Amino acid sequence: MRSAERHFSALPGFRFTLGYTMFYLGVIVVIPMAALALKALELSPGEFFRLVSTPRAIAALQLTFGASFVAAFVNAVFGTLLAWVLVRYEFPGRRWVDALVDFPFALPTAVAGLTLASLFAENGWLGRFLVPLGFHGAFTRAGVVIALTFVGLPFMVRTLQPMLENFERDVEEAAAILGASRLRTFLTIIAPTLLPGVLTGFTLAFARAVGEYGSIVFISGNLPFRTEIAPFLVVIRLEEYDYNGATAIAVVLLVVSFLILAGINKLQLWANRFNR
Amino acid sequence: MTKRFGDTIAVNDLSFAVNEGELVALLGPSGGGKTTVLRLIAGLETPTSGDIFIRGHRVNDLPVQKRNIGFVFQSYALFKNMTVYRNIAFGLRVKKWKRRAARERVEELMQLFGLEQLGHRYPHQLSGGQRQRVAIARALAPKPDVLLLDEPFGAVDAKIRQELREWLVRLHHQFNVTTLFVTHDQEEAMEVASRIGILNCGRLEQVGSPQEVYEQPANEFVARFIGVMNVIELEVRNGMACLDQIAFPAPGYKDGDKVRVGFRPYNVRVSPSTDEYRCQAVIRHTYFLGIMMRLDLELPSGARVCARLTKEDYKRLGLATGMRVSFQIAEHKILGAAQNSNAHTAAGSGCTHGER
Could you tell me if B45 and B68 lie in one domain? Predict the structure, then answer.
């Protein structure tokens, strides 16, 4: 850590700003996390393991992480495409489409969940056509993925947009002049350059999905062992006054998320090696 | 060939040929269509009309990938996810060179360009000059038929520019690849190119050796763009255009016509004795330009004329600001009839291109 005293700085006082940052992080992030950890420490290891290894808890955790991963992946592909189209092409209504991307940010997730559930229900606007084809969007695991994809989309698009705007078109032209086909240019130049941004968007969408609650409650149906997500199980345990059970599951959510995010971060360092 | 973008004509009925192994500059002000010409040749734009031939083959319908052209972008457009080595090797890999041949070619180029130690660096770890060398090496690696350079020295500072110019000339001797480069810097074009094409508003004004375009400019635009020139608007009387005591013959113009007369500052002879030459003036300003001195002379009529002489001559003649002198014009050119829209009068004119 380097003191900034000798340099001109727009914000006054390195000590003051750092102190404030620490205080803020402490109150907002560290204390709640520490409280959770302390609460978990009250449990004996055996007790903890028993609480989180019930088949119901395992099914819920698997669904949460699995569906979040799939949703983040879907967003990585289609969100990238959407960002590309928004940055690269000028078409009528582009600004409207651009504004629509922020919708999932602003919409209360419960409203989103309700809307999606009624759309995909057997008699809904979409369900009417999809259910006869064998696709059940409401009250299924697919519904969970749909809702998580919805809430994660803006993270992907908004992360990639500035990167794509900085991506010079010259580079593509240079590759073409050297004889490279479009596919080759995409695979060897565009994709590797965008990968760090895609990973950042993926991380954000994934983290958001793991913590998502409001929209899932309505679309999944919350069937234990099938469509019940871990955050919902935490709420159930709380309602049963089973604080230990709730804490144990919450800690697993926290630790696994942390490990996955750390893993992605490592991957990102590698993907971004050419910028360091 | 012609290229239109909507209503704007970027390149207007342009036609020229570059000989095998030649180094030609396209010179002109920004927005003159220079870059568009390069992009048309490379196949990045399609001409609205006209044909492009490379080594006798019409390439209009050939896609960018197949034209075998080397292109150096103003921004260099390096692949930032690749090392220097892989940037240079890119074209060779695409063209399926044999592994060993490709490695030898890349190593040869890196050595020639002084990049041996930088093979493992990424573009963002390089200086501007190094990036530019990588860009040129990358373009040359697949042995292109034609090398196109878009403002190759635009992004580096003045001192490195000078070195790079010399380097480019040497490079051209070594590879002998037909090269067309775009610049807005007339000095750069004069120094580097064997021929210069001057482009203005999409139109090719003149093509010729540096000496030709300097000494026999085809028109006023070329004359003003290449080097420094005094342009004065004068009225014709008795077949002569008169600037105080100096009369320029103006054949083909009627009395009362206004003509534009141009002369280079170094063609103005100045004497400290007021009766050596016929024209009188006062030295208003002197500018020190290294080995040359520039004098701004004010005539009794108020007209201003710019003169240039060496520092030795300046000292020998004992000139100084504020002095009364006499002068004459050794060589001039009638540029044409004055345009009414252009409000250049004798009093208001002077040096049209301030040097540095």
Answer: yes
CB-CB under 8 Å, A177 with B71:
yes
Nearest C-alpha of chain B: how many angstroms from A177?
Answer: 5
Which one-letter DSSP state was computed for residue B49?
B
Which among B75, B81, B90 has the least Cβ separation from residue A192?
Answer: B81
List, for residues A18-32, the tens digit of each pLDDT value: 888 999 999 998 998
**Residue B341 pLDDT:** 40
Q: What is the pLDDT at residue A156? A: 94
- A192–B contact, CB cutoff 8 A: yes
> Residue B95's domain spans which residues?
3-223
Q: Measured between beta carbons, which residues in chain A are less than 8 angstroms from residue B65?
A: 176-177, 179-181
CATH of the domain at B252: 2.40.50.100
- In which band, very low, low, confident or very high, does the pLDDT at B220 lie, cut at 50, 70 and 90? confident
Contact B293, B309 (CB under 8 A): yes
Q: What tokens appear for A216 in the block?
A: 């899932």
* Judgement on whether residues B192 and B149 belong to the same structural domain of the protein: yes
CB contact under 8 A, B122 and A189: no
A183 and chain B in contact, CB less than 8 A? no
Residue A71 to residue A264: CA distance in whole angstroms:
16
The answer to whether residue B104 scores a pLDDT higher than 60 is: yes
What angle separates helix A141-166 from helix A94-101, to the nearest 10 degrees? Answer: 120
Using a CB-CB distance cutoff of 8 angstroms, which residues of chain B are in contact with residue A171? 77-80
Counting as low any pLDDT under 50, the low residues of chain A are 1, 3-4
Q: What is the DSSP letter of A7?
A: S
Q: Are A45 and A122 in contact (CB under 8 A)?
A: no
- Per the structure, the count of domains in chain A is 1
Q: Which ipTM did the prediction report?
A: 0.77
Of the candidates B81, B122, B142, the beta carbon closest to that of A178 is on B142
Q: Choose among B43, B79, B94: nearest Cβ to A171.
A: B79
